[in-house]
Amino acid sequence: MHQKSLSELAAGLRAGELTSEALTRHFLDRIERFDGELNSVVTLTAEQALQAAREADQRIAAGDAGPLTGIPFLHKDIFCTDGVRTSCGSRMLDNFEAPYDATVSEKLKQAGAVMLGKTNMDEFAMGSSNETSFYGPVKNPWDRERVPGGSSGGSAAAVAARLAPLATGTDTGGSIRQPAALCGITGLKPTYGRVSRYGMIAFASSLDQGGPLAGSAADAALLLQAMSGFDPRDSTSIDRPVDDYAAGLEQDLDGLVIGLPKEFFDEGLDAEVRAVIEAAIEQYRSLGATIKDISLPNSSLSVPAYYVVAPAECSSNLSRMDGVRFGHRCDDPKDLDDLYTRSRGEGFGAEVKRRIMIGTYALSAGYYDAYYLKAQQVRRLIRDDFVKAFEDVDVIMGPTAPTTAFKLGEKSDDPVTMYLSDIYTIAVNLAGLPGMSIPAGLVNGLPVGLQLIGNYFEEGRLLNVAHRYQQVTDWHTQRPAGYE
Amino acid sequence: MRLQSRGQICYLSRLPENAVETGNMSLDQDTIRRIARLARLGVDEAENATYARSLSDIFAFVEQLNAVDTRGIEPMAHPLDAIQRLRPDVVSEENQRDKFQKIAPRVESGLYLVPRVIE
Question: What is the sign of the dihedral through the CA atoms of A127, A133, A134 and A139?
């Protein structure tokens, strides 16, 4: 049952061959059985899930079902869920039961999707390995001595092990695409402004976007459809109709022009990963695509620009965690200043503190122009490279990550090396473009992700290009051993 | 600089000149203490050296931005250069004080309790 695609599950539900309640129990059992070793779920909401499943079964019986009605999913613990703990992977919010639903949570509820629980993640989404979580690291189901990537590592590991058919994620510098690549699944970061950020705990507001993690592009299309849309409650949401993603999947790739940026195939790219990516490009050629070499000359500046912009915004966003109205408060504060300082000192982990300090320093008077303004200018140069490239090509392709999954602990003492694991994904966030990762092969038994980057609001095109590849290859159906 | 509550808290608006200048990035432990103070962030004294090292590494890495000529380039605040929308100024939410205060560390009579600020 857990190996079926979303459309197969939905058809089974509609035909009365299975119930959402049975499906929900099946996945809850799998979480029970496998998650002890993976640590991908931080809060299981079994009771609420079964209740939601029964309601979904009634909707289905009444003929009032959409594509996600009755389908179980796991929700990244960064999305507020009314009455359910929303920890963001932090001790600071370990006791935080959100008093309202994020727009994405609300939309998925309305669609009749069944939330099984909340997934583990890097603390406040700051990390590329899921090792910064207050709840301990998530293990990669392909090799439990390795990281699943981050920050949506719990979501990616859970979908890879089929503990849920779908999961939500968020992506500020690669946090959907990089774990999707390292866990061998499909993940998509939409155009900035496509998915509402209301109730999605803010890390870097000008970069954050929510998106789907799934077993295939066709499944991701259905989840993205339900998550997307204009939201007046998010001031950066874009008021523009959402395309019908499922309807566009089958479009022919004849005449598609794919751009390969030479900067994404530099010496930092692992040779075996490169070979997998090149084979995938060849596959696209045989599907009718034309390949064009392009250049994104400023993309090498994306990691340094990001490590000014993102920490600056995070230091501002996380100032709301002060121990006064919600979240962790220290014992016996002697005065208000002591309350702030100790509550924050105890509530935040080392990486979050590091980024708050980077941001505080970069924004302090006298340094603002030298760092933040400079980085925002470089950001425009990076964006303009993409705009120019899209005059000649339809999609841009390359690796999602420079290597396959690395060992737990391997990079945790060296922040700069860790930050470079997002070297191919960050430019996409800085430019606000949609990006995707799909499984394209294995190196020594570990998955490799192919990154697809589209023009603004071309999520549908990306899903179409990914789907056509998945129709002629079977990398997306490969599963880690031991989770049958 | 602003003083508050019997001079206990002073908000530094500018890091002292002897803090590090850009171009030769190395942050010392005093700078780390000052940044942590500005951010109201309790950092163990024992961890200062580690933070000084990693922040120095990160700012040294960020230095490469200085090699780029950005004269005349408009800083990019929104990827689509969108501007803030305005909405009619009407009530759209109900008061949910009790619900919101249920998750607060300490409340009394509808107020959030903090240590005494003014004596």
Answer: negative
Q: A321-337 b/e with 16+ CB inside 10 Å = b?
A: bbbbbbbbbbeebebbb
Active site residue A76: yes
* Chain segment A283-330, per-residue pLDDT in tens: 999 999 999 999 999 999 999 999 999 999 999 999 999 999 999 999
Question: A256 and A394 in contact (C-beta within 8 Å)?
Answer: yes
Cβ neighbors of B42 (< 8 A, separation 6 or more) are A341, A342, A344, A345, A346, B36
Question: Could you tell me which of A401, A434, A405 has the C-alpha nearest to residue A420?
Answer: A401
ipTM: 0.92
Q: Are strands A72-76 and A114-119 parallel, antiparallel or unpaired?
A: parallel
Note the pLDDT tens digit of each residue in B6-54. Answer: 333 333 334 444 343 455 578 999 999 999 999 999 999 999 999 999 9
- Per-residue pLDDT tens digits for B62-87: 999 999 999 999 999 888 888 888 88
Tell me which residue of A357, A338, A336 sits closest to A348, measured CA to CA: A357
Instruction: Measure in Å the smallest separation between the Cα of A282 and chain B Cα atoms.
Output: 32
Assigned token pair, A483? 């989770």
Taking every pair of Cα atoms in chain B, the longest distance, rounded to a whole number of angstroms, is 58
Q: What average pLDDT does chain A have?
A: 97
Residue ranges of E strands in A123-246 = 166-171, 186-189, 209-214
Within a 10 A sphere around the Cβ of A403, how many other Cβ atoms?
Answer: 17
Residue A300 appears among annotated catalytic residues: no
Q: Give all domains of chain A, ordered by start, each with its CATH number.
A: 1-484 (3.90.1300.10)
A480: CB partners within 8 A, 6+ apart: A141, A142, A160, A161, A184
Interface of B with A in 5-64 (CB under 8 A): 5, 8-9, 13-15, 22, 27, 31-32, 35-36, 38-44, 47, 51, 54-55, 57-59, 61-64
Question: Which of the residue ranges A108-112, A123-127, A294-298, B80-84 would you say has the lowest mean pLDDT?
Answer: B80-84
**Which of B61, B82, B114 is opposite residue A339, by nearest beta carbon?**
B114
Nearest to A154 by CA among A172, A175, A174, A145: A175
Q: Tokens for A275?
A: 């070979």
